[in-house]
Fold these 2 entries.
Entry 1:
Amino acid sequence: MAETIRPAQIRVCEPLLEGRESVYVQDCLKTNWISSKGKYIEEFEKGFANYCGCSYGITTTSGTTALHLALAALGIGKEDEVIVPAFTMAACVLAILYTGATPVLIDSEPDTWNLDVNQLEDRITRRTKAIMPVHIYGHPCDMSPIMEVASKHRLFVVEDAAEAHGAEYYGKRVGGIGHVGCFSFYANKIITTGEGGMVVTNDPKIAEKARALKDLSHSPQRRFLHTEIGFNYRMTNLQAAIGLAQLERIEELAERRRSNALRYNSLLANVQGIRLPVEKKWARNVYWMYSIVLEDTFGISRDTLMAKLAQHGIETRPMFIPMHRQPAFLDQGLFKSECYPIADDLSQKGVNLPSGSGLGANVDFVCAAIKEIAAGK
Ligand SMILES: Cc1ncc(COP(=O)(O)O)c(C=O)c1O
């Protein structure tokens, strides 16, 4: 008889909205500033850009639209190619396709799970316009060699920092290292606005272009005159009000994720067959998702572990399905017969454990359950 699965009591990620979120949202409601103009938009854009070491921040409706907006603001379109890791979330490839450009994949490093910089130059062609490094699960990419290759070949670097708010590369916060950085503020991210995103940059021209494009590209001379194809990617003041309150606590929220990870690392260190996430000596990993990879010596498959953890009321997620395995992209004639063994391996054996900033002592409960399952109890 099939065993019943209890609803999860420990979720993969839950937001912590314990600061001034409701005060600021109430203020929007009381003052009628509920649409995309208002002081919270301005304060959130300035504050978050500044946190990333950038002069300009342009809020958007999501991380996906932030990526699309950034690529569009750089003038990327048909005939162009953008290099992106095979092991990532589909939004990266979707954003490239929205511009009409072609995504070109690259495999990952086995330890950080980020794009393998040693494979970069082999993928560059005369059509390449940009590289999109993705800071997977909160660990920064090795940005210096990426920036060197980009400058040698005159390419843009569009950082996808959706999962890595506050992560650092040699002490520099991600998002502010490439030409443009893109963030998501979905509810499971380190800080959230419910739905939302932001493009950050230090380049005034890119910022101006992105700001125009996100608001339908009204002509500066005459409102309702449009000389370019723009989008409505406007975040609301209500969302930015939540974002600003979250931003006030961003370091605390990131540090809580880091202390979850330290606790997981120490409790799982001696469990046979579990590969733990790394933190390179030059990195500050913010562990957006605390993830492990199961080797054969663990004794049971990733999917079995997930099912058994669900019976303990513990929610988990499998790692991403790589881009060359997505029917939607294969149907477009993309990535046919391409091979990315590290991405495939992670996809089959990797699992995201509960990772929210409010997890606290539940880490011990999750680790005890994993050990019990591994021991066959
Ligand atoms: C790496 C990466 N890029 C982009 C996105 C898209 O963000 P959103 O869901 O806000 O559109 C996500 C979402 O989780 C992501 O993980």
Entry 2:
Amino acid sequence: MSAVLPLPDPSPEVGVLLARGHDCRYADDLAAAERWFRQAAAISPATAEAWGALGEVLAETGRPREGVAALARADALDPGQPFRLAGLAGAEAACGEAGAAVATCRRWLALCPGSLPARQTLATQLLSLGMPEAAVAALREVVLLDPDQAASMATLVGLLTDAGEPVAALELAQPTLRRVPDHPGLHLEIGRAWQRLGESARAAAAWCRCLALAKATSPEAEAARSALAATPDPSPDHTPDPTYVRALFDRYAGRFDAELVERLEYRAPQLLLEAMRALPGFAAGGLDILDLGCGTGLAGAVFAPHARTLAGIDLAPRMIDQARRRGIYHRLEAGDLRTVLDRESQRWHLIIAADVFTYLGDLGPVLKAVARSLCRGGRLAATVERAPEEDGVIAMPSRRMRHGAGHLRRAADAAGLLTLSLSPATLRTEAREPVIGLVFVLERP
Ligand SMILES: C[S@@+](CC[C@H](N)C(=O)[O-])C[C@H]1O[C@@H](n2cnc3c(N)ncnc32)[C@H](O)[C@@H]1O
């Protein structure tokens, strides 16, 4: 059995050389430090400290390849020293040996599982090896261990955005943004995430913030300036971009029902059915029903017993997947609700839109399309969130829109639809406060 022997202390003579080298290094005289460390290594080639310190100085003075050789020698003499592995990984990274740097970082992490620099170096090197998914995993651990790591968060937001997950990126960045509000690189990447979602106003705001925080000549400022120059003006009525809505609900699909029904006491579907039942002439069965923005099918489920056929359309394919599982729809499609309305005229006995017009601005065009798509005597039952102004259409910070009763009546009149009922009701809660909406039924005469 072989025992692990401790390394002998350097001889007093070598100890003096090392001490002088360290003194010079701290005094920033790296050329002198190098001479002392070289001398120590020449006199005592088995002293790991001499090779290690020499390797660090070589790497610091722009000779990372020689630094790697010296640090690797120190590591071989005295393996398992985290600070030395840190130096070795840095030097390997600096001379483009990403594969070796990754291996060194993994050894470093095995010794120090909580090390942020080890994970950060690992992530950078994985990226240069063309392994963004593995880099994302390492960076996720960094920001989980310490949400204040704004530079790592910026890289992570950029990678997730490039991987088509800008909503996840924005969600993840929130705690860091609150705690470190002045990191220009993070605002730059936040802007790219919003841009990917088609939210040019929010993207532009993030880039302006980046410009305000960054040095004028920095790469971040340069990138923010060219991004701003290439960004179109945002939509004048602040209607959220469909790309954003789709990404939001795709991400939300798996937990939508539990969130809305159990936590937010969502009841728009039941309110629509009550509004329909309260009107004379409600045919309780045999209806061809179109569910606009059907989501996971919460409203479809309430109306299915009254349907001869039930069709649903939604922007978010993952919401459609959830709706399909209910087995109640005869037809489901992923797409903008306007496509089905434009395609199928005089078709539907009933069109429902539960909490969907909340994602549209001016309702004039959509109600005209609804009017064409309904058969004679056909009805639309829908909800909106109520705007404080009778005639108003306003955008909320949540990206949802609110509509006033006057706006609804005017848009219905312009579309040739009769307003059969229109009344306020609590649609759900938000931060434990009721969200007041309008429930309305329109009819094609
Ligand atoms: C709050 S959810 C309501 C879902 C469903 N109606 C319900 O009551 O459970 C809103 C849904 O509308 C969809 N949506 C928003 N704008 C849309 C559009 N222009 N075309 C199709 N679907 C849309 C969203 O993808 C989302 O699934």
